Every structure is written in structure tokens, then in C-alpha cells.
Amino acid sequence: MSRTLTEAHLVALAIADRFESLPPKVNRMELADAIEILQCALNLTSTEVIYFRLACRNTPEAFWRDGHEPVFGWSRLRVARTMKLDERTISRIETSLVTKGLVVHRDGPTMRRHGGTRWYAGKGVSLAPAAARFDELRARARAAIDEDRRWEEARVSIYSGKSFLDGVLKRDDILPEVAETVMALMRDIPVRMQARMSLDELEPLAARVNNLVARLTELFGVPSMSSACDIHVRPETEPDSPNQRAAGDAGEIALVVETAADAGIPVAVARKVVGDRGLERTRRALSGLEARLRQTNAPVRSPVAYFQWLIANDSHSASRTRQSC
Q: Are strands 111-113 and 71-72 parallel, antiparallel or unpaired?
């Protein structure tokens, strides 16, 4: 059965025939990682990626150096058993990788090895075409990772800014022209981020949001870290920075949640109470709960229920207790 010789196949054959064109030393696992990262860009299936990684891992390290050819010499039967597939499927995977210019079959002539001092019957699948593109594939993979990072940073920046803008719109002293500017930008922010949105769309939008947030921060002040909708002007005499304030709030919340957990209150319940009722009210309720738990003559059957009762009644004294819980 004759194989169709595509342009990619011919290029792969030419690369495989020029052993000297390979980089001095190819990191085989970095190559496998790059192929996996570029799976969609190279139009590869998941099984093709798994096959390529298996081939890289099981090709001798010495074959990846300059002047040698990395040939994966496993039989299709062995590969099929390892991948839990049949031999026909493995054959299709190899043919697909050949047509995509990443490997070539080495079923025929012998090939020179080790500077011409030895000969090796190169039967199997040669990874030389992909190895010759090692630097290119690694650079493309790094660029793809960097693009994903920038995409996520832009997404987070947009929706963090959106929370700030929501708070600005709820102010009573906002000017109509400022509100119109904010609303115009809010209309451009998608309600739900779509994966198909490109970085070229997101980064300009993130820059617009950040620019408007910076201008509004100068006008209204830094947003409170406790609520995205609570906008206030920070006094000039206040020494701590926004980052210090955020770290302080986070530390206090973590301490309260830890105290609640020691008293038998689930973390989720404690965090919800802090968010709904505030830190001070939560602390007072915890003090009342701890005082009640120390009383041996009146055991608390349900710490969570008693804690919620204290929150609902806003206990200001640890001595105020419920008769039955």
C-alpha cells in the first residue's frame, strides 16, 4: 500500500536525511512538552501527543545529539500494548504524524552512526524532523504560554476594574458626564468572558479600564478592600498603603476564621458571616460562643446554631447567653 507523499512529508524526509542539521543537543522532554503545548496549533489529536511523548521518552539519549538521528525503535505491537490501543490505530497515528511533518518512517536502508565508525539499521520512526525544529517549537511554546498569561492578566484586570466602576456608579455625588463615561465603557465589557476572544481584543479593553480606574481613583479615592462597592477618600495622614490595608484586612479575617474553626464553626460559615455582618460583629459573637463553651454546667449542643443566634441578636457581651440551644 503506497503512502501519499505530502509536502510536509517530503520536507520531513529531507530534514531526516540531514543529520548535521539537528541542534547540537536536543532536550527530548522539552520537545515533547512543546509539542503538547502546541497541540492545537499543530492540529494534533490527544493520542498523537501521547504517542509522541512516549517516543521521546523511550528513544536513547545518545540519539538526540548532533550527527545522530533519534529513531524510536519500538514495534507497533509493543506501542499498542503500552497505549492500550490496537496496531491499526498506531499505524494511523504514525501516518498522521508523518503527513504533519513531525516524524518519518525508517524501514529501509541502514544509516551511518557515531561519526561513521558504526552502522545502525534504523528501523522504526525517526523523530529527526521534529528534533530539527526544536528551537522553533520551543520558542513557539514559550510564546503560547506568555500569551495565555497575558490573556488571563487582561481578563482579571477587566473584571477587577468592573467591580470598581460598579461602585462608582452607586455614588450619590457622581457627575452625569462621569456616569455616562463609565456606562459607555461598561457596555463594552462582556457579561461573560468568551474563550474565543483574542488577546488583541482584551488588552486594549483592559488598558481602557485601567486608565479610567486610575482617573476615577484620583477623583474619588482608593476603593475599600472590604467591599468593591464602598468607595471612599483616604485621609492624607493615613500612613499605610492600599496593599498594606488589604494585607491587614486579610490577616484579620484569617484570624477570625481560625478562631471560629477552633470553636467548631465551619470555615465557609465563618467567612459568610464576616462578609454579611462584618468583622466586629463576628468577633463579639465568637467571644460569646467561647464564653458559653467554657461553662461546663451548660453544654452547647450545636455551636453553629448558637453562633448564628448570637449574630442575629448582635450580642455585645460575652455573658449574654441563650437558655437553650
A: unpaired
307 three-state secondary structure: helix
**Tens of pLDDT along 75-128?**
899 999 999 999 999 999 998 998 898 998 876 444 443 333 333 445 788 898
H/E stretch holding 120: strand 118-120
Q: Rounded to an integer, what distance in angstroms lies between the CA atom of residue 120 and that of residue 280?
A: 78
Q: Judge residue 212's burial from the number of C-beta atoms within 10 Å of its C-beta, 0-12 exposed, 13-18 middle, 19 or more buried.
A: buried
- 309, three cell numbers: 443566634
Give the whole-angstrom CA distance, residue 48 versus residue 44.
6
As a whole number of Å, the end-to-end CA separation of the chain is 82
DSSP bridge pairs for 72: 125
Query: What backbone phi and psi angles, to 5 degrees, belong to 48?
Result: -65, -40
* Model confidence pTM above 0.90: no
Judge contact between 135 and 23, C-beta under 8 A: yes
pLDDT confidence bin for 306, thresholds 50/70/90: confident
Grid coordinates representing 32 are 515533547
